[in-house]
């Protein structure tokens, strides 16, 4: 027995080396969020509210609003709390058949409306979707462009829409300047107004024979009368009786000067008592028109800007830039503008804030990074001490994330009316769309204040910001989201600043701040820039310098697979395309001398190009817009419009995940991850 045990032990001992695990698999990547968050279940007045791109209310009193920059639709419930209604909270492949609050993110939420049964309709990119009020399930109504079988009339675009009392969808088609209807029953499309050409409307003629000048707002009366506004200082009306276009004057009797473009309506709404409300964003006021008599008066707003409080009579309150108005079933007027949604009580005429704290992002000077708010972050640059500098572009802030996870505002926060583009105390300067960041070898911070056309310098003690150089840029950012992220890089002698809106790259002397055009042509209104060799620059954004001084440029188009990465020779400035057929390339950074990494904002991915072999490897992003994957391999995570990228001294990748309002960090791997869907859609 003892011999048998000994032999067994000897066999085990000798065979033990054979039982060792095989050589370990190559480590795979991982991704996590280091700054930014998504606020949910927040009391309405505490919610940080950026620019609202759509507004609607159902018969139960729930208010829905879309934020295009976040690709989200939110709902203010009757309990007074804000939650995501449509957007990304799970790693799902498609929203169709999904439950709305858990649906994967859709790009470009904008127009939305509610029908009599409280079903919600949202235009998401090129799709009109319906969220069922009873089940919360989402379905596609149609994709755009839409043409009914056997018909000639089409829907090419939807900029605004409303459901009428007949149950049909009424819409503005911005592509051919027309007002149209869509039947949910038959799928038929009908043209109500506009002849397909752009121009001043012609009141008195049949509505379908009149040009329209950029129709922009729409509402439907309980009797089926259609009201809409264009880029003209009046409101138009048409009825089914004669189909002719009628103009409704919006001039106040006491204002004797002729109306002009400054008086153009930004939004319109009707109540059940025959009042037409007209928001005038430029005038910072809302008019009320009694349709029976035509009498016009100021209903809300003094014409001044700013916020002077709640509980004030509406005609004494400031309502800065009202971009949406609607009348709820109780007759209260809902107004969005100046980072708030407010309600005017129909009986008392007193105003109160129902959503928004007056800031597009959390305005605390210091906050835990995962609770701090970012608004269209453009770039995130790590420093040797472990901190990360971030430009919150639409938040007009330069931020610093320290190694302990605290987020602090370093620069920005001043009012342009008071400071202009002047230098001054760091937290009082008025930044406008800051984007590029450069840390020099002494860890001094330079950043581009893009819409102010300035390269700023945060002096070493962090208390003051100076203006280092000013470029002759003529264009400014536009739209509700960051279309292109400018970049700032430098060598020993020069800064290089990309100008995506101007179509060029500037070179600025670090010695005397002299500015010269490096590639492209000086921006003007005549179209995209073109270099001397004929290379056309569309929207140069990301920049990177190699060890010999050659400049690499991510040149992207907002739409279409026409983006490319260019190399500018340091000696001749000749331009070579090294990679093409990209979907809006944005950020650039070298991982090594041979590996140039780039983000594709339009493809929602980050990839790396081996300059020697010309092979491309996926680093992060599934290719579908959304937010998911923290703690998982980066290739299996969803990104949304990633912009600037950079590497730290440890080789970790930092991504400005712009559409998700976050900064994310990738621990790079060598192995290839196997991605599996982790959440199954509810059917």
Question: What's the arrangement of secondary structure elements?
Answer:
Blueprint: H1 2-15, E1 30-35, E2 42-43, E3 54-57, E4 63-67, E5 72-76, E6 81-86, E7 109-114, E8 120-124, E9 127-131, E10 138-143, E11 160-163, E12 169-173, E13 178-182, E14 189-193, E15 217-220, E16 226-229, E17 235-238, E18 246-248, E19 267-270, E20 275-280, E21 285-290, E22 295-300, E23 324-327, E24 333-337, E25 340-344, E26 351-355, E27 366-368, E28 377-382, E29 388-392, E30 397-401, E31 406-411, H2 416-419, E32 424-425, E33 434-439, E34 445-449, E35 454-458, E36 464-470, E37 488-490, E38 494-499, E39 504-509, E40 515-520, E41 529-530, E42 536-537, E43 540-545, E44 551-555, E45 563-568, E46 575-582, E47 585-590, E48 595-600, E49 605-610, E50 616-620, E51 642-647, E52 653-657, E53 662-667
Antiparallel strand pairs: 1-53, 2-6, 3-4, 4-5, 5-6, 7-8, 8-9, 9-10, 11-12, 12-13, 13-14, 15-16, 16-17, 17-18, 19-20, 20-21, 21-22, 23-24, 24-25, 25-26, 27-31, 28-29, 29-30, 30-31, 32-36, 33-34, 34-35, 35-36, 37-38, 38-39, 39-40, 41-42, 43-44, 44-45, 45-46, 47-48, 48-49, 49-50, 51-52, 52-53
């Amino acid at each position: 027995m003892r011999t048998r045990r000994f032999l067994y032990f000897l066999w085990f001992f000798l065979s033990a080396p054979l039982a060792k695990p095989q050589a370990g698999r190559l480590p795979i990547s991982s991704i996590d969020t280091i700054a930014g968050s998504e606020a949910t279940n927040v009391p309405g007045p505490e919610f940080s509210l950026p620019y609202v791109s759509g507004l609607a209310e159902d018969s139960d009193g729930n208010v829905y609003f879309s934020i295009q920059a976040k690709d989200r639709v939110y709902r203010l419930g009757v309990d007074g709390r804000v939650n995501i209604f449509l957007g990304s909270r799970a790693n799902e492949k498609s929203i169709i058949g999904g439950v709305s609050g858990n649906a994967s993110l859709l790009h470009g939420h904008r127009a939305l409306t509610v029908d009599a049964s409280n079903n919600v309709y949202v235009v998401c990119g090129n799709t009109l979707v319906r969220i069922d009020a009873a089940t919360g399930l989402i379905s596609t109504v149609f994709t755009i462009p839409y043409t009914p079988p056997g018909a000639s009339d089409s829907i090419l675009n939807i900029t605004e829409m409303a459901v009428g009392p007949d149950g049909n969808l009424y819409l503005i088609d911005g592509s051919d300047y027309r007002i149209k209807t869509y039947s949910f029953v038959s799928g038929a499309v009908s043209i109500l107004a506009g002849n397909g050409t752009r121009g001043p409307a012609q009141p008195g003629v049949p509505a379908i024979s009149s040009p329209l000048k950029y129709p922009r707002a729409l509402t439907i009366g309980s009797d089926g009368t259609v009201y809409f506004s264009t880029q003209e200082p009046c409101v138009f009306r048409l009825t089914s009786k004669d189909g002719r276009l009628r103009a409704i004057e919006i001039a106040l009797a006491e204002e004797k000067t002729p109306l002009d473009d400054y008086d153009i309506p930004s939004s319109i709404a009707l109540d059940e008592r025959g009042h037409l409300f007209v928001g005038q964003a430029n005038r910072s006021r809302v008019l009320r028109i009694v349709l029976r008599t035509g009498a016009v008066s100021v209903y809300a707003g003094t014409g001044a800007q700013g916020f002077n409080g709640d509980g004030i009579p509406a005609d004494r309150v400031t309502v800065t830039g009202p971009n949406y108005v609607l009348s709820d079933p109780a007759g209260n007027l809902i107004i969005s503008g100046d980072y708030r949604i407010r309600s005017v009580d129909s009986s008392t005429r007193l105003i109160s804030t129902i959503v928004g704290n007056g800031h597009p992002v959390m305005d605390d000077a210091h906050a835990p990074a995962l609770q701090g708010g970012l608004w269209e972050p453009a770039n995130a640059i790590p420093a040797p001490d472990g901190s990360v500098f971030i430009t919150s572009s639409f938040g007009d802030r330069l931020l610093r994330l320290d190694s302990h996870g605290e987020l602090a505002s370093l620069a920005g926060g001043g009012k342009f009316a008071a400071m202009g583009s002047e230098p001054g105390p760091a937290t009082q300067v008025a930044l406008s769309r800051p984007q590029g960041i450069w840390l020099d070898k002494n860890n001094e911070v330079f950043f581009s204040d893009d819409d102010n056309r300035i390269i700023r310098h945060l002096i070493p003690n962090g208390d003051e910001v100076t203006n280092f150089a000013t470029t002759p840029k003529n264009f400014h950012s536009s739209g509700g989201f960051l279309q292109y992220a400018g970049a700032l890089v430098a060598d020993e002698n020069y800064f290089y600043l990309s100008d995506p809106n101007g179509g060029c790259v500037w070179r600025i002397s670090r010695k005397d701040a002299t500015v010269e055009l490096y590639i492209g042509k000086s921006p003007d209104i005549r179209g995209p820039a073109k270099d001397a060799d004929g290379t056309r620059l569309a929207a140069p954004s990301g920049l990177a310098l190699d060890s010999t001084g050659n400049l690499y440029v991510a040149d992207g188009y907002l739409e279409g697979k026409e983006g490319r990465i260019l190399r500018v020779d340091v000696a001749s400035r000749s331009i070579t395309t090294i990679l093409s057929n990209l979907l809006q390339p944005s950020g650039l950074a070298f991982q090594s001398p041979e590996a140039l990494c780039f983000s594709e904002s339009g493809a929602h991915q980050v990839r790396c190009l081996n300059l020697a072999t010309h092979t491309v490897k996926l680093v992060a992003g599934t290719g579908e817009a959304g937010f998911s994957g923290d703690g998982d391999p980066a290739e299996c995570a969803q990104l949304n419009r990633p912009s600037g990228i950079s590497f730290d001294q440890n080789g970790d990748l930092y991504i400005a995940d712009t559409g998700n309002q976050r900064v994310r960090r990738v621990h790079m791997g060598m192995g290839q991850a196997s991605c599996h869907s982790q959440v199954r859609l509810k059917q």
